[in-house]
């Protein structure tokens, strides 16, 4: 268990470093994130509506009645459509809870990946490169099942979705380098 915890910790460190590089240093995420020219007016309108923290769909779904569904469908046909993830509370540049939550997600997901890797048969994962590819494929699965699912069903823009997809694959490939270094499959017991 100690190896899995250590691999999870190291994987989380790598994922956090990659996340920083990807979002704060490299330019590709900034090219898919837009700022509203009338942001202050939009924020004022949301605040005036007393919206609570949560996710909002545009157009809204109304009360669920047949008449409300028809209005929603008519609005969807002409647009605009969108999703708004809204929080009434802000956070500072260096909010420890923000980073702690992110680190914990990276830590537990890296521990899970290490645990899966540990359970592979020795013949499948005796080579370091094979173990790295296994972790990378978990990232590919995450990217396809998660990021492309959001693109297909939630209407996320293609460029934004592809950036997140590449982000996941690169991040998990890099994490795979350290997880595979620390985790080797259990040897089969002979009788």
Overview of the molecule:
The protein is mainly α. It has a domain of 124 residues. 66% of the residues lie in helices and 5% in strands. The chain has 7 helices and 2 strands; from the N terminus they run ααβαβαααα. Strands 1-2 form a two-stranded antiparallel ribbon. Helix 1 packs across helix 4 and helix 6 runs antiparallel to helix 7. The radius of gyration is 21 Å and the shape is elongated. 21% of the residues are buried. The model has no long low-confidence stretch (mean pLDDT 88).
| Oligomer state of the chains in this structure | single chain
| Total helical segments | 7
Q: Report the principal-axis shape.
A: elongated
Distance between the termini: 24 Å
The largest sheet, given as strand count, sense and whether it forms a barrel, is:
2 strands, antiparallel
Radius of gyration: 21 Å
Overall mean pLDDT stands at 88
Q: How do you describe this structure in short?
A:
With 191 residues, the protein is mainly alpha-helical.
What does the secondary structure layout of this molecule look like, with pairings?
Elements: H1 2-25, H2 39-48, E1 54-58, H3 66-78, E2 82-86, H4 96-119, H5 122-125, H6 128-154, H7 158-182
Antiparallel strand pairs: 1-2
């Amino acid at each position: 268990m100690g190896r899995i915890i250590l691999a999870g910790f190291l994987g989380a460190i790598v994922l956090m470093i990659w996340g920083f590089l990807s979002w704060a240093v490299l330019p590709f995420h900034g090219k898919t994130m837009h700022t509203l020219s009338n942001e202050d007016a939009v924020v004022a309108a949301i605040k005036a509506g007393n919206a609570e923290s949560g996710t909002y769909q545009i157009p809204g779904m109304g009360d669920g009645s047949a008449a409300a569904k028809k209005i929603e469908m008519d609005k969807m046909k002409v647009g605009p459509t969108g999703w708004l993830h809204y929080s009434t509370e802000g956070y500072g540049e260096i909010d420890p809870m923000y980073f702690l939550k992110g680190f914990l997600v990276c830590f537990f997901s890296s521990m899970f990946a290490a645990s899966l890797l540990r359970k592979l048969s020795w013949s499948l994962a005796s080579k370091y490169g094979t173990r790295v590819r296994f972790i990378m494929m978990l990232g590919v699965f995450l990217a396809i099942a998660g990021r492309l699912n959001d693109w297909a069903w939630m209407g996320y823009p293609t460029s934004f979705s592809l950036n997140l997809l590449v982000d996941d694959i690169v991040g998990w490939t890099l994490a795979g380098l350290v997880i595979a270094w620390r985790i080797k499959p259990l040897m089969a017991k002979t009788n």
